[in-house]
Design a protein that fits this description.
heterodimer, A: about 450 residues, mainly beta, 5-stranded antiparallel β-sheet, 4-stranded antiparallel β-sheet, 5 helices, 35 strands, B: about 650 residues, 3 domains, two-stranded antiparallel sheet, about 0% strand
């Protein structure tokens, strides 16, 4: 080749440099071709196929986290149906995953797996029952269900963040939250709290083993970049305190921590990654709701009042929970008396505040517990008191079978109600051979009108 | 023809391939391990065969049900197209009737990774032989000769094809013959779906046809990889190409290992040279990739990719060798050379140990060989898992009578057995009465349903007790032997469920022998040049005259030998320990080792835990002794001679002896 000539093809012959360029070009082209193999991109999918999406998608301000790991978004609601994950210890099966989908129209309950040939036996191709993972919490966000799961290898326990598409066509490993080297006995992965808001996930994770102090940590994950930061000095330690009762509003994620005997409400600011605590009145019992950036409504351990905290001024105000009690005098005269009552928690759908109460009504042969919800507007003015029904409620399953909810478990129903705008979902569970969950729905307008029509949706398998 | 003779049809190639073939056969014999679960057999296989039609029907039912579900029913979606394709594909094989038979031999062939490795090694060896003229400085001369470019490159590609496909035929043919001897009676004309692992293969193939297809696929994958290497060698230096090729395969392995099948990048898991060449049953799974929104089966897509890639590489290689002109200037190399000089001037001086380590592990490729062989030993172990053969009628007696074996405990066992035998006698008497009673009722025309049920229950109880007694007899025999030993020696013997230890120490000899062989092979290959390298470079005399060039250097070499032997032995042998531990728990490590029946004659009174340390220690010492022998031979002869000594005097005899078990 003539000296100084830069052409890579000279007189019909290829130089080494030219050949290298062809090779590199070919490799780049191959990568581009394969990277583009998936025609349907996540962002486009919703519009094109009208795959159901959650009603409170971004950029809505309000987002609610889980109350506990077991009922993380107990029902994940989309326009087409409902998604749920039944933990193994409750379902009594040997499945370590078990993501399911219930069609809203037909009520068909299937594994979230799009392969008709799949036996859903934990095989590696099944996006619903892959036995490689043991899920501890799930969260519906955007067009995916995210799950915190533990994978056990020969040498390590890996706590991972997984994502599953809503049609079950993909199960992806998004990132590894933490890796624990195997030492000694069997460890189990736990999730103390999980919430995703504005592409930021906050995960209270940990590991526990028999007769050993559990180790905990809190990870903040940027879903855009995959970066993981830990809130505590040591990512995982016996000294760390697990986060729980997560909520989000605007650019802030709220979470609770128990420090000694005191419960503290913290705020994590997504924009700058800083954390500060709220100066609440003593006795805060981790029950709270965020109405807006400057209005946090919470309860104290006495449960007889709801308090409002305004972060901008640091001001705390207390509103007693009062109701009118009816009694009859000796002459049969009706006597109305204003008394205090105990609220079982506090929740919001962004418009109203809901304070559940367990009210005892006396009958001829004993007493009956009723589940009552007090509804307040944003100014804490009570606008409705609704009796949802007696605690010993008889429900009909989809097969027509009559089931009776155990009063002992109804007592906690305040934790198991999801207020999603116009739709309210109730979860009840009944002790039997296994713990069975039943999901009911009612319209908010019906509830506010004092006439909640509980409609059976499905029983979790 | 001359090129063919130079590369393939010569003594050195034949000898090397012969040795590899022999070792390959020996290792395959160890792979055919009856203690391990190669493929479902017995009831598990029967259940699969019985449920096959039902499964096929359920797939079609699922397709119909899922098509009606709004979640999957969007016409233009991949999910919907996948549903339709799956339904159509499974309809094609719904008329197949799988037949029961011996599948273990053929499955062992499918699962044997070493064959692919040797196949790839053969291909790489042939490609390296193509560079002979370059090493001898005859490159330009060869190019100037008539037919020295296009024709020669075509001939070489032909030789590579012949070598790879021929080697595949010989390697797989040989192990298939061995498998037929070890597990005879495999009817190769049965549908491939008769093997549970291949139940989802779409197509009407017999087991024989599928095996041929499988071998061709492997050979094609290796050929593609070797052509890539051949092509790269025309562009870069050979050592760089070897490293790049190794890294490419490592990268492909990483993609295979870390991408999950359901993930969005799954296309890179299956359109992948490692998966294609090395994975035995991966492509037997039914799975459709999302290729531009269209479902494409992993097998068809990978076949297409490899065939197109191979054809393309043939043309590119031919074009490259025929049209490329060598350049005298290598500006990049000059820059690299300057950089190398700069680094060597400024890098801190290393210790004697580091230099010796570098010589053995890097210059002589010791680390590379160790990694490959330990990986092969590991993959050979994990290709199949152990089975728990213990009967539940035996194991619970171990728990019930756990503890020291004394006359009292043995008497308790006798009493328990007597009680159960008495129960059986009583129930048998009752059974006779009930049958008489049933006959009377029957003759009177009365309903005998209740009596039938009672009789059934009695029979079941008798059978159950008989099984329990059989189980107790096994435990009792062990207890009697233990008691006799205890009385004779005065040592405290415990009754333990020793299944895991017996498997580890006695029953699974095949794995132990295979591990010894892999350890020996690693030690020989890694240490063969440990002493001879100085001799080969004529530096032996100079080394001896240098400060610390004799004893100190020798001590460092011995330290490396110890390190190699310890790491290799423990890495290879401990896999078996952990694998058994996953199925059968290693308990009671603190009791006397004589509590395990198969090591009762061991003279020293130590615990099981200590005995395990002892056993693994002995294995390390043995490998150190072998390593020392190799080191000694290496100090007297060249590396090739040491290798030959190692293979012919140590490895092959040991393999042949071990095959007799």
């Amino acid at each position: 080749m003539a000296k100084g000539r830069k052409k890579w093809l000279v007189s019909g012959s290829l130089t080494k440099k030219g050949m290298r360029r062809i090779v590199i070009g070919f490799l780049i082209l191959s990568v581009m071709v394969f990277a583009g193999c998936s025609k349907e991109k996540a962002g486009e999918e919703d519009g094109k196929k009208n795959v159901g999406i959650r009603r409170e998608l971004e950029p809505l301000d309000y987002n609610r986290g889980q109350a506990s790991t077991a009922d993380s978004q107990m029902v994940m609601v989309t326009e087409k149906g409902y998604y749920y994950y039944n933990p193994r210890e409750f379902s009594g099966s040997n499945e370590t995953m078990g993501l399911r989908y219930v069609d809203a129209e037909t009520g068909t309950d299937i594994f979230l797996c799009n392969k008709p040939e799949c036996r859903h036996d934990g095989n590696q191709f099944c996006s619903a029952t892959n036995k490689k993972y043991e899920i501890s919490a799930t969260f519906l966000y955007g067009d995916r269900i995210y799950a915190v799961a533990t994978e056990e290898t020969d040498t390590q326990y890996l706590q991972k963040l997984l994502s599953v598409t809503l049609d079950g066509s993909e199960l992806n490993e998004e990132l590894t939250i933490y890796t624990l080297e195997k030492t000694g006995g069997k460890w189990f992965g736990n999730c103390y709290g999980f919430l995703i808001h504005r592409n930021t996930a906050i995960i209270g994770f940990g590991f526990s083993a028999a007769e050993v102090e559990p180790k905990r940590g809190t990870a903040i994950v940027d879903l855009n970049t995959g970066d993981v930061v830990y809130l505590d000095e040591e990512p995982l330690s016996e000294e760390n305190i697990g986060v729980n009762n997560l909520n989000a509003y605007g650019d802030t994620i709220y979470y609770c921590k128990k420090e000694g005997k005191k419960n503290v409400l913290y705020r994590y600011h997504i924009t700058d990654g800083t954390v500060d605590s709220c100066e609440l009145l003593p006795g805060f019992n981790q029950k709270y709701a965020v109405l807006d950036e400057d209005t946090i409504v919470y309860m104290k351990s006495s449960k007889r009042a709801i308090c409002v905290y305004r972060p901008s001024t640091g001001e705390n105000t207390e509103h007693r929970l009062l109701e009118t009690e009816l009694s009859y005098g000796e002459d049969g005269e009706k006597i109305e008396k204003t008394v205090e009552y105990e609220g079982d928690g506090i929740k919001t759908d962004g418009t109203y505040l809901y304070v559940p109460q367990q009210r005892a009504t006396f009958r001829e042969f004993g007493r009956d517990f009723h589940f009552v919800i007090h509804v307040f507007d944003r100014n804490l003015k009570e606008i409705a008191v609704v009796d949802v029904g007696p605690s010993l409620e008889v429900f009909h399953t989809d097969t027509g079978e009559e089931v009776v909810a155990d009063a002992a478990y109804w007592r906690e129903i305040g934790e198991y109600v999801m207020y999603l705008g116009e739709d309210i979902y109730f979860l009840s569970y009944i002790m039997g051979t296994n713990l069975n969950y039943y999901v009911h729905h009612c319209k908010r307008s019906d509830l506010l009108a004092g006439n909640p029509q509980l409609e059976f949706l499905f029983g979790m398998k | 023809m001359l090129e063919l003779k130079r590369i393939l049809w010569n003594g050195k190639t034949m000898l090397l391939f012969g040795i590899l073939l022999l070792l390959h056969g020996i290792f395959f014999v160890f792979q055919c391990n009856g203690e391990k679960s190669i493929t479902p057999i017995g009831e598990e296989l029967t259940a699969y065969l019985d449920g096959y039609d039902e499964y096929m029907q359920s797939v079609q039912d699922n397709v119909i049900m899922m098509k009606e579900n709004p979640l999957f029913s969007a016409d233009d979606s991949f999910v919907y197209r996948n549903l339709i394709k799956t339904g159509e594909d499974y309809a094609k094989i719904s008329d197949i009737t799988p037949v029961e038979g011996e599948n273990r031999g053929v499955m062992a062939v499918f699962q044997f990774t070493l064959s692919t490795f040797i196949l790839l090694l053969t291909g790489v060896y042939i490609v390296l032989c193509f560079l002979a003229e370059r090493q001898k400085g005859l490159y330009l001369l060869v190019r100037c000769t008539e037919r020295g470019r296009t024709v020669l490159s075509l001939q070489r590609i032909g030789i590579l094809c012949l070598g790879v496909f021929g080697a595949a035929l010989i390697l797989y043919g040989s192990i298939f013959a061995i498998s037929s001897v070890i597990f005879p009676g495999c009817d190769m004309a049965r549908p491939v779906q008769s093997i549970p692992e291949f139940g989802s293969v779409i197509g009407h193939y017999s087991i024989g046809e599928y095996l041929v297809l499988y071998v061709l696929r492997k050979a094609m994958g290796c050929l593609f990889a070797c052509l890539l290497l051949y092509f790269c060698m025309s562009l870069f230096r050979s050592s760089f190409c070897i490293v790049a090729f190794f890294l490419l395969m490592l990268g492909e392995y990483a993609l295979y290992a870390f991408i999950i099948p359901t993930g969005k990048w799954s296309v890179f898991k299956y359109i992948n040279l490692y998966t294609y060449a090395f994975c035995g049953t991966e492509y037997a799974n039914y799975y459709n990739l999302n290729v531009f929104g269209t479902p494409r089966n992993i097998v068809g897509t990978s076949d297409l990719f490899v065939v197109i890639g191979t054809v393309l590489m043939v043309f590119v290689c031919m074009l490259q060798y025929a049209r490329q002109y060598p350049r005298s200037e290598y500006r990049t190399l000059k820059v690299i050379e300057k950089l190398r000089i700069f680094i060597s001037r400024h890098k801190p001086s290393c210790s004697l140990m580091t230099w010796e380590f570098k010589k053995v592990m890097f210059s002589q490729k010791g680390l590379f060989i160790m990694a490959i062989l330990i990986y092969l030993a590991y993959s050979a172990s994990v290709e199949s898992n152990y089975m728990d053969f213990r009967s539940k009628y035996v194991t619970h007696w171990y728990q019930d009578f756990a503890g020291e074996i004394t006359e009292e405990s043995v008497q308790n066992m006798y009493n328990t057995r007597t009680e159960m035998e008495e129960d059986i006698e009583r129930w048998q008497a009752s059974l006779l009465q009930q049958e008489e009673y049933k006959m009377r009722n029957f003759l009177m025309g009365a309903d005998t349903g209740m009596i039938d049920q009672f009789i059934r229950n009695l029979k079941e109880a008798i059978e159950e007790n008989e099984r329990q007694i059989a189980g107790l007899n096994v435990v009792l025999l062990q207890a009697e032997e233990g008691l006799e030993y205890s009385v004779r020696t005065g040592r405290k013997i415990m009754l333990i469920d020793s299944g895991a230890y017996e498997l580890l120490l006695h029953n699974d000899k095949q794995t132990i022998s295979r591990n010894y062989l892999y350890t020996l092979l690693t030690v020989v290959l890694v240490l063969s040049g440990i002493m001879s390298c100085e001799k080969a470079s004529h530096m032996e005399m100079m080394l001896h005259s240098l400060y610390r060039g004799r004893l100190q250097t020798l001590l460092r070499k011995i330290a490396i030998l110890l390190g190699v032997c310890i790491v290799t032995t423990l890495s290879i042998h401990l896999v078996q320990y952990f694998q058994i531990g996953e199925v059968l728990a290693f308990t009671d490590k603190d009791v006397l080792v004589q509590s395990i029946p198969c090591v009762r004659d061991f003279p020293f009174a130590i615990t099981i835990g200590q005995y395990l340390y002892f056993i693994y220690g002995v294995r390390v010492v043995m490998s150190v002794l072998m390593g020392s022998a190799v080191m000694y031979i290496s100090s007297k002869f060249s590396r090739i001679t040491t290798l030959a000594f190692g293979v012919f005097l140590l490895i092959i005899p040991m393999g042949l002896v071990a095959m007799r078990f």
